[in-house]
Design a protein that fits this description.
210 residues, mainly beta, Jelly Rolls, 7-stranded antiparallel β-sheet, 4-stranded antiparallel β-sheet, 1 helix
Length: 210
């Protein structure tokens, strides 16, 4: 049984009309290396003929961004020539390395039709030896991400980065971390194991870590 050392409440920090909660950094938690930043956008519903996400072209360097699309979609375009539209359940992985400019906006279809939107974005600090690595981007739809059924099928573990009990995840990060999204059915549980420190971010007030 793991013991939770501290609980931190995300701070509300909207960006234009985008509902945003920021668990990291916050007044009570600045960073936990290699985790630099975590934003939870939404959940909210956009009306038809909306402006979509407000993240036009902007630079990153010396870090990696991992974007989890829970609802809606994201259209990515960057200075390295990478483009994709990733829908609900998918993940975008970008290694900024020595520098990259990218935009994260909603697809033309989402702007026209509207719909639910919920997104998590995590920033990972690159080790010093990888700060100037070549930029990289890859977006995966939900069907391309390995998953495991646990607790008699009541838990779905989506393997985003690293490995879990010998099974490789979708991405192999330059930092020694394991990242996953976990979907629970009522009454289900998920063993974190005891080999590493663990950070759990819940997107629902009805779910919890203990």
């Amino acid at each position: 049984m793991r013991t939770i050392k501290t609980l931190h409440t995300a701070e509300y920090a909207p960006i234009a009309d985008l509902k945003t909660h920021s668990p990291l950094p916050s007044r009570s938690l600045q960073q936990i290396d290699p985790f630099l930043f975590l934003n939870h956008h939404g959940p909210q519903t956009y009306l038809p003929n909306n402006r979509g996400l407000p993240f036009g072209p902007h630079p990153h360097r010396g870090m990696e961004t991992v974007t989890f699309i829970l609802e809606g979609d994201i259209m990515h375009k960057d200075s390295g020539g990478h483009e994709s539209i990733i829908s609900a359940g998918g993940v975008q992985w970008m290694t900024a390395g020595r520098g990259l400019i990218h935009a994260e906006v909603s697809s033309p279809q989402f702007k026209k039709e509207g719909g639910p939107l919920e997104i998590l974005q995590l920033w990972l600090n690159l080790p010093a030896r990888h700060k100037m690595t070549a930029p990289f981007y890859r977006g995966l739809q939900q069907a391309e991400i390995p998953s495991l059924a646990l607790d008699g099928g009541r838990v779905q573990l989506n393997l985003i980065a690293g490995s879990w009990e010998g099974q490789q995840a979708a991405f192999q990060p330059k930092t020694d971390v394991f990242l996953s999204t976990v979907a629970f059915k009522e009454g289900a549980s998920y063993p974190l194991g005891s080999r590493r420190s663990a950070i759990c971010s819940s997107t629902s007030s009805e779910a919890g870590c203990r």
